[in-house]
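Open question from group meeting: does this chain pack into something compact, or does most of it stay loose? Before anyone orders reagents, we agreed to write out a predicted structure and look at it together. Recording both the input and the output here so the notebook holds the full record.
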Amino acid sequence: MGCRPWSDLPVEILNLIIRRLSMIIDQIRFRLVCKNWHLAEVPEYESNVPWLLGFLWHFDLGVGDAMTQLISFHIPSPNNQCQITKNIVKEELELFGAGICASKYGWLLLQQSDKAFFYSPFSGKAIKLPNMEINFNRATFSSSPTSPDCICFAIQSSKSSDKIRFSICSPGNLEWCTIEVDGFNKAVEDVVYSNGNFYCVFSGGVLGAFYVASCHWSMLTCMEPIIEMQVWSRSRLVESNEELLLVCCSKDFHVFRFNWAKMGWRKINKLANQALFLCCSSFAAAAEGNTSALADRIYYHSNQHRSCFYDLHTKKRYACEDFYPWVLHDATETIWIQPPHF
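Structure tokens returned:
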């Protein structure tokens, strides 16, 4: 009688095993082993609430110059933390020290010099991209890197240049396609993908769009600043239910919705049962049911590796203590990441 392969275990056995794994991240990785193991019970957590991810590269001179990647998670429901340590092998040395450029669909877009790659902290899978042709300011991507329609987009624009350069690429391409257009000496502050196009906001709320289908660039607003306020940090673009939101931070947080009829920004005071999470790739999350307390809040990271939120009702800032703390200490970078969806 032949032995049954591990990949062909009955679902009942898989469920018994996964129930013995105390950490959600271990349960997730268990289900990613193979197609059959993916049939095991789905871990229980609030799928609409982001996790906090901490990223740290470590070089240990005392242990054979070992290089490791330390990833920490704070999982808001059931409110626990876990860490994953990955040794960097020879083939990955050129990626050591890479910084996070974007976070979407449970994937990270990382960049080191002219090297760029996608990385899934849940599965440990990496997808390399061709070497970059531009020193970009902002970057994002359209869909999961495993999807055939995934497009990575990078933009270079600064106050010292009268040119704007765009680069686009898909996983599997041999090189980036770079386009240069006339600019206007403004720094690009954020970029987001929505409805098949990439939208870029510049200082003052100036908005432009890169249309993927026709591969051309167009300005949507005038060149003059349209957000008349003294901001303390760069503005953030957020895609919310196929609408564009702009978040500006001064003494308070100010939220604007783009009015397509008038081609301009209109200030709003409510988020319609949503919460906003700001980082290099900001996003909106539904605040309903068990997470209704998050409605009309804007979450962000402080300089002390602590998560905070701004309440649009009270117009005050708070540390994240009343609902989910979202705290990580062993990290040089912290970012919101959307949990896996099964």
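Observations to bring back to the group:
Residues 194 and 242 are 6 Å apart (CA to CA).
Residues 11-19 form the longest helix (9 residues).
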